[in-house]
């Protein structure tokens, strides 16, 4: 245990207290009853039948940040290589009218004067290896003119790049610019045009995705214009969008979209609708209104940039919890935002840095957020989320567990303000273990100056505890990660974790 423990909270916001207000009832989505055959395991394992999608760890490529007029920047290319990225969303949040078109935002559906695909689009598609979700603007024309030429564009882009295009996503965060009625009308038009273009194309079979409701910004159901409770307003927003869709459009919509940003604290997770950001409420409406199964895409997710109280070491457990929640919600594909940027929540560092730092094993060290994302993206796709009781795990430790064909992965976070010495008996979960290893992520003290940037106060001292006479800052956003590797013998996992450090254990059943 840590010695000489003292707690200092120079920030106004305390750990575990949400920094944003959220409303109303809480609910939890039902789990998939499907369960596959069990490998050898102890009584402490409970199966969920929920699996991590192979497409869970894609990224956004914001036009003005990740590219130079469409061509991927050297920093973005370094991030793609360091994280092993293969799924992209372009032009990300820069698909809607926000200044000078082609400079501040990009309409990917616009053609050149010669009637060809614009170079900003083709440069990106040729500059990445993998699949791309293209975001279709909903603000590039008046409603009466919206969709003109969209079917021809869809046919053209698929004939040239069909193998690379995973989906067409209609709009980005509609609520920032219009209400549900107008968005639903535009979505219905776009679906019809895209369907026609896909049918005419000689290559590609992308999904058509539409946004679910959000009662913020220009929503017709914001709290400033609608006095009903939050959940009632969320339901109304979703129904209003769907009501605008023609029967033909509904038949050709393949999936729905949400953005998921963490606005709560980092020391207590409860799997409620508030923690899910009420996405389960949205999904229930769409699943009820459609007569075919819809895929579910979270095309932006991360710790919210303004949630500086939960950054640094604290943010690692948040990202693990978010992935766990997305698995529980049935997410088929997800794109983290942002991989590189000049924000407090980027995973790969500043967009103009030129390079994403890694260790000698190729693991990302640029940020703590990036480190845990890198580990998860490497080991989790295809694994089943499981529930476990680990004998010897101290109170206050956060545990996430996954399994596939006798291979187990555990993420354990020290969610306390003390240094904790772990001594875990893994044989209670896996009676016969062939091999067990561990990777611990901590803060590289050489990268820490003890301060971080906050929206209200600028750069201030980060929160810390004093352990063994030294300050241990735990929410400093711009520090690098350091890894410690373990080989565990006889199914016994032993490690010492400072507050909010994370240990990933991999164990294979004999």
TrEMBL record:
Keyword Signal found: yes
Region feature Disordered, mapped onto this chain: 22-47
Entry keywords, A to Z: Signal
Acidic residues: bias regions: 22-35
Keyword Ribonucleoprotein in annotation: no
Compositionally skewed regions (Basic and acidic residues) per UniProt: 36-47
Signal sequence coordinates: 1-20
Name of the featured protein: Alpha-L-arabinofuranosidase
């Amino acid at each position: 245990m840590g010695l000489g423990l003292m707690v200092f909270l120079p920030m106004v916001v305390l750990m575990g207290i949400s920094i944003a207000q959220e409303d109303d009832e809480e609910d939890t989505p039902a789990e998939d009853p499907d369960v596959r055959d069990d490998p050898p395991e102890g009584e402490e394992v409970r199966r969920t039948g929920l699996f991590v999608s192979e497409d869970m760890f894609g990224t956004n490529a914001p036009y003005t940040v990740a590219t130079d007029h469409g061509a991927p920047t050297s920093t973005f290319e370094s991030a793609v290589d360091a994280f092993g990225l293969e799924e992209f969303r372009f032009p990300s949040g820069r698909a809607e009218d926000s200044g000078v078109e082609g400079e501040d935002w990009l309409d990917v559906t616009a053609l050149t004067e010669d009637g060809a695909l614009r170079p900003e689009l083709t440069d990106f598609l040729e500059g990445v290896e993998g699949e791309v979700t293209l975001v279709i603007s909903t603000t590039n024309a008046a409603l009466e003119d919206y969709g003109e030429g969209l079917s021809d564009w869809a046919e053209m882009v698929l004939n040239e790049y069909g193998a690379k295009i995973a989906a067409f996503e209609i709009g980005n965060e509609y609520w920032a610019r219009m209400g549900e009625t107008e968005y639903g009308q535009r979505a219905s038009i776009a679906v019809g045009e895209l369907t026609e273009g896909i049918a005419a194309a000689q290559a590609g079979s992308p999904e058509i995705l539409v946004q679910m409701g959000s009662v913020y910004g220009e929503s017709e159901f914001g709290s400033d214009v609608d006095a009903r409770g939050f959940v009632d307003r969320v339901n109304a927003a979703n129904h209003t969008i769907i009501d605008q869709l023609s029967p033909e459009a509904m038949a050709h919509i393949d999936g729905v979209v949400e953005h998921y940003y963490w606005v709560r604290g980092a020391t207590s997770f409860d799997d409620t609708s508030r923690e899910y950001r009420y996405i389960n409420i949205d999904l229930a409406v769409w699943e009820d209104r459609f007569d075919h199964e819809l895929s579910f895409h979270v095309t932006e997710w991360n710790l919210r940039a303004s949630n500086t109280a939960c950054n640094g070491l604290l943010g690692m457990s948040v990202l693990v919890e978010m992935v766990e929640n997305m698995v529980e919600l049935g997410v088929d594909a997800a794109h983290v935002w942002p991989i590189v940027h000049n924000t407090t929540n980027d995973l790969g560092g500043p967009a103009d840095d030129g390079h994403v730092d890694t260790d000698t094993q190729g693991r990302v060290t640029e940020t703590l957020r990036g480190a845990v994302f890198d580990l998860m993206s490497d080991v989790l796709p295809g694994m089943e989320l499981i529930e476990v009781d680990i004998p010897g795990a101290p109170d206050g430790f956060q545990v996430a567990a996954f399994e596939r064909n006798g291979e187990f992965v555990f993420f354990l976070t020290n969610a306390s303000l003390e240094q904790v010495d772990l001594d875990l008996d893994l044989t209670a979960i896996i009676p016969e273990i062939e091999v067990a290893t561990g990777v611990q992520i901590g803060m590289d003290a050489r990268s820490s100056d003890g301060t971080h940037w906050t929206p209200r106060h600028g750069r201030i001292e980060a929160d810390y505890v004093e352990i063994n006479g030294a300050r241990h800052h735990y929410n400093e956003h711009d520090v690098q990660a350091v890894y410690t590797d373990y080989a565990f013998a006889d199914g016994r996992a032993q490690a010492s974790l400072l507050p909010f450090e994370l240990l990933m254990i991999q164990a294979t059943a004999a």
